[in-house]
Design a protein that fits this description.
Elements (H helix, E strand, L loop, with lengths): L3 H20 L3 H26 L5 H31 L30
Helix pairs in contact: 1-2, 2-3
Length: about 120
Protein backbone atom coordinates (compact mmCIF):
# COMPACT_ATOMS: atom_id res chain seq x y z
CA UNK A 1 0.00 0.00 0.00
CA UNK A 2 1.40 3.43 -0.87
CA UNK A 3 2.26 5.75 1.99
CA UNK A 4 0.09 8.58 0.72
CA UNK A 5 -3.19 6.69 1.34
CA UNK A 6 -2.97 6.72 5.14
CA UNK A 7 -1.52 10.23 4.99
CA UNK A 8 -4.52 11.39 2.97
CA UNK A 9 -6.91 9.71 5.41
CA UNK A 10 -5.10 11.24 8.38
CA UNK A 11 -5.13 14.72 6.85
CA UNK A 12 -8.88 14.44 6.15
CA UNK A 13 -9.53 13.29 9.73
CA UNK A 14 -7.36 16.08 11.11
CA UNK A 15 -9.20 18.67 9.01
CA UNK A 16 -12.58 17.40 10.21
CA UNK A 17 -11.29 17.54 13.79
CA UNK A 18 -10.06 21.12 13.41
CA UNK A 19 -13.43 22.10 11.97
CA UNK A 20 -15.15 20.39 14.90
CA UNK A 21 -13.05 22.28 17.42
CA UNK A 22 -13.35 25.70 15.77
CA UNK A 23 -16.94 25.70 14.54
CA UNK A 24 -18.87 23.87 17.24
CA UNK A 25 -20.34 25.35 20.37
CA UNK A 26 -21.20 22.14 22.17
CA UNK A 27 -18.41 21.00 24.46
CA UNK A 28 -18.95 17.32 23.69
CA UNK A 29 -18.55 17.96 19.94
CA UNK A 30 -15.38 19.94 20.63
CA UNK A 31 -14.01 16.95 22.55
CA UNK A 32 -14.92 14.68 19.64
CA UNK A 33 -12.96 16.98 17.33
CA UNK A 34 -9.92 16.72 19.59
CA UNK A 35 -10.21 12.94 19.55
CA UNK A 36 -10.36 12.93 15.74
CA UNK A 37 -7.17 14.98 15.62
CA UNK A 38 -5.41 12.60 18.00
CA UNK A 39 -6.51 9.61 15.92
CA UNK A 40 -5.15 11.29 12.79
CA UNK A 41 -1.79 11.62 14.54
CA UNK A 42 -1.93 7.93 15.46
CA UNK A 43 -2.56 6.96 11.83
CA UNK A 44 0.46 9.01 10.78
CA UNK A 45 2.67 7.44 13.44
CA UNK A 46 1.74 3.89 12.49
CA UNK A 47 1.95 4.61 8.75
CA UNK A 48 5.46 6.03 8.99
CA UNK A 49 6.50 3.20 11.29
CA UNK A 50 5.33 0.65 8.72
CA UNK A 51 6.81 2.56 5.77
CA UNK A 52 10.27 2.91 7.29
CA UNK A 53 10.20 -0.64 8.78
CA UNK A 54 11.45 0.55 12.13
CA UNK A 55 13.01 -2.28 14.11
CA UNK A 56 12.08 -0.77 17.47
CA UNK A 57 8.51 0.10 16.37
CA UNK A 58 8.81 3.62 17.72
CA UNK A 59 5.74 4.86 15.85
CA UNK A 60 3.52 2.17 17.31
CA UNK A 61 4.89 2.83 20.79
CA UNK A 62 4.19 6.55 20.47
CA UNK A 63 0.71 5.72 19.17
CA UNK A 64 0.04 3.68 22.31
CA UNK A 65 1.18 6.58 24.48
CA UNK A 66 -1.11 8.89 22.51
CA UNK A 67 -4.05 6.53 23.07
CA UNK A 68 -3.39 6.47 26.83
CA UNK A 69 -3.13 10.27 26.97
CA UNK A 70 -6.33 10.61 24.92
CA UNK A 71 -8.19 8.30 27.30
CA UNK A 72 -7.03 10.30 30.32
CA UNK A 73 -7.89 13.57 28.58
CA UNK A 74 -11.39 12.48 27.65
CA UNK A 75 -12.08 11.18 31.16
CA UNK A 76 -11.06 14.45 32.76
CA UNK A 77 -12.78 16.56 30.12
CA UNK A 78 -16.07 14.70 30.47
CA UNK A 79 -15.92 15.18 34.24
CA UNK A 80 -15.46 18.93 33.70
CA UNK A 81 -18.32 19.01 31.17
CA UNK A 82 -20.63 17.23 33.64
CA UNK A 83 -19.67 19.68 36.39
CA UNK A 84 -20.35 22.65 34.09
CA UNK A 85 -23.70 21.16 33.05
CA UNK A 86 -24.75 20.64 36.66
CA UNK A 87 -23.83 24.17 37.65
CA UNK A 88 -25.00 26.09 34.54
CA UNK A 89 -27.60 23.83 32.91
CA UNK A 90 -25.91 23.95 29.49
CA UNK A 91 -22.60 23.07 27.85
CA UNK A 92 -22.49 25.83 25.24
CA UNK A 93 -18.87 26.98 25.35
CA UNK A 94 -19.70 30.43 23.95
CA UNK A 95 -22.15 31.14 26.77
CA UNK A 96 -19.69 30.20 29.52
CA UNK A 97 -18.36 33.51 30.75
CA UNK A 98 -17.72 32.64 34.39
CA UNK A 99 -14.22 31.39 33.60
CA UNK A 100 -13.25 34.35 31.39
CA UNK A 101 -10.88 37.12 32.49
CA UNK A 102 -12.59 40.14 33.93
CA UNK A 103 -11.42 43.72 34.04
CA UNK A 104 -12.31 44.09 37.71
CA UNK A 105 -11.94 41.19 40.11
CA UNK A 106 -13.93 41.12 43.34
CA UNK A 107 -11.13 40.02 45.62
CA UNK A 108 -11.16 40.53 49.37
CA UNK A 109 -8.91 43.20 50.80
CA UNK A 110 -5.49 41.97 51.94
CA UNK A 111 -4.91 41.57 55.67
CA UNK A 112 -4.13 44.75 57.43
CA UNK A 113 -5.63 46.96 54.73
CA UNK A 114 -8.39 48.15 57.04
CA UNK A 115 -5.74 49.47 59.50
CA UNK A 116 -3.67 51.19 56.83
CA UNK A 117 -0.88 48.55 56.92
CA UNK A 118 0.50 47.39 53.58
Amino acid sequence: MPLWWPLLLASMLFGIGVYGVLARRNAVLVLMGVELMLNAVNINLVAFDAAFRDVLHGGQTLALFTIVIAAAEIGLALAIVLLVFRSHGHIDVDRLRDLADRDRLDLPEPRGAERGVR
